[in-house]
Amino acid sequence: MSQVKLTGIVKDYGDHARIIHGIDLDIADGEFVVFVGPSGCGKSTLLRMIAGLEDITAGELHIGDTLANDIAPAKRGLAMVFQSYALYPHMSVYENMAFSLKLAGMKRQQVDDAVQQAAAILQISHLLQRKPKDLSGGQRQRVAIGRAIVRKPAVFLFDEPLSNLDASLRVQMRIELSRLHQELKTTMIYVTHDQVEAMTLGERIVVFNAGRIEQVGTPLDLYDNPGNQFVAGFLGAPKMNFLKAEAVAVADNEVSLRLADASIMTLAVSALGIKPGDGLTLGIRAEHMSISPLSEVDAAGIGMSGIVMCAELVEHLGDSVIVYAKLAGEPAMIAIKLSTDAPMLKAGDRFIARLQQQRCHLFDTSGKACKRIPVSSQTAPSQPFYSA
């Protein structure tokens, strides 16, 4: 069994520098889990603690049924792939992959079988006699992964292994890693600061911030139901829009908000702990907004339609268009992701923006997400949306 269990894991450097603050996490046998978060959040430090490259200050690490706190790194049954390939330049690909097995005293035929099998899995059999200098970045990373595979570890640890690759190779290697996991069915823990890698690779994502876990869940669950404003803003590209709002009326399952431009909107959310006058934050993703030219809506028709914005910048991405716009009284720029057949805008154009209210998020004064209430035609908010 290769499950990993972390209980109250703490890491201190000196008397006052606490980097990891009591991490509790269970990783199932055969699961692909991604640690994600900004630089300095502690995700790589925690991975190194699992690997045995950093001492554990407090708490317990179990690998399988074994308490691993004091077990030497080489005896934990783990294999780690680093950001740098760390290949021996004077050795061939075959020799790089076989090196650890030879040190372990394995017989020549066993070593050859293991290397050939790993090379076939990674589709690098034709490269076995080359030196690292003759390989592309993606091929070198495959060799580094192959060097880990031949050891047949209980758990694979990946520390930002794709950071040194260009964009197209990163996409290719993400596919390769997903295929590798499906084939080997081995527990994998993957560290990255790239939320795209996290969303595409992980069966579960662990979002870190300042040495603590903010939220754990499947990629779509974290994307659709972030537990707080940090998680909501970290996952997604463009990042979620956050608009200042004030609670003007509160009922059990709905809150009416006043936005910066004095527009009012009502959301079906749990209002527990919210009172009129509270400063809140409205969150809406760029793809959950649509637009109409201002010329198509007369002054009387704006009321139930949306809010007036002004385009500041328009990015044409080929398959989509990103409009960055300003809302009166709102300091932050608002991103709106549109299809290419949406009305064409240019900087300076004013337009009507419509928010999909069932996809809006509301965060309280502490940044915690308010639970959204499923909306049917019978339970729609009493006052959906109107402008001042």
Automatic annotation (TrEMBL):
<dbReference type="InterPro" id="IPR003439">
    <property type="entry name" value="ABC_transporter-like_ATP-bd"/>
</dbReference>
<dbReference type="InterPro" id="IPR013611">
    <property type="entry name" value="Transp-assoc_OB_typ2"/>
</dbReference>
<keyword id="KW-0813">Transport</keyword>
<dbReference type="InterPro" id="IPR027417">
    <property type="entry name" value="P-loop_NTPase"/>
</dbReference>
<dbReference type="InterPro" id="IPR003593">
    <property type="entry name" value="AAA+_ATPase"/>
</dbReference>
<keyword id="KW-0472">Membrane</keyword>
<dbReference type="Pfam" id="PF08402">
    <property type="entry name" value="TOBE_2"/>
</dbReference>
<dbReference type="GO" id="GO:1990060">
    <property type="term" value="C:maltose transport complex"/>
</dbReference>
<keyword id="KW-1003">Cell membrane</keyword>
<dbReference type="GO" id="GO:0015423">
    <property type="term" value="F:ABC-type maltose transporter activity"/>
</dbReference>
<feature type="domain" description="ABC transporter">
    <location>
        <begin position="4"/>
        <end position="235"/>
    </location>
</feature>
<keyword id="KW-0067">ATP-binding</keyword>
<dbReference type="InterPro" id="IPR017871">
    <property type="entry name" value="ABC_transporter-like_CS"/>
</dbReference>
<dbReference type="InterPro" id="IPR015855">
    <property type="entry name" value="ABC_transpr_MalK-like"/>
</dbReference>
<dbReference type="GO" id="GO:0016887">
    <property type="term" value="F:ATP hydrolysis activity"/>
</dbReference>
<keyword id="KW-0547">Nucleotide-binding</keyword>
<dbReference type="InterPro" id="IPR047641">
    <property type="entry name" value="ABC_transpr_MalK/UgpC-like"/>
</dbReference>
<dbReference type="GO" id="GO:0055052">
    <property type="term" value="C:ATP-binding cassette (ABC) transporter complex, substrate-binding subunit-containing"/>
</dbReference>
<protein>
    <submittedName>
        <fullName>Sugar ABC transporter ATP-binding protein</fullName>
    </submittedName>
</protein>
<dbReference type="GO" id="GO:0005524">
    <property type="term" value="F:ATP binding"/>
</dbReference>
<dbReference type="InterPro" id="IPR012340">
    <property type="entry name" value="NA-bd_OB-fold"/>
</dbReference>
<dbReference type="Pfam" id="PF00005">
    <property type="entry name" value="ABC_tran"/>
</dbReference>
<dbReference type="InterPro" id="IPR008995">
    <property type="entry name" value="Mo/tungstate-bd_C_term_dom"/>
</dbReference>
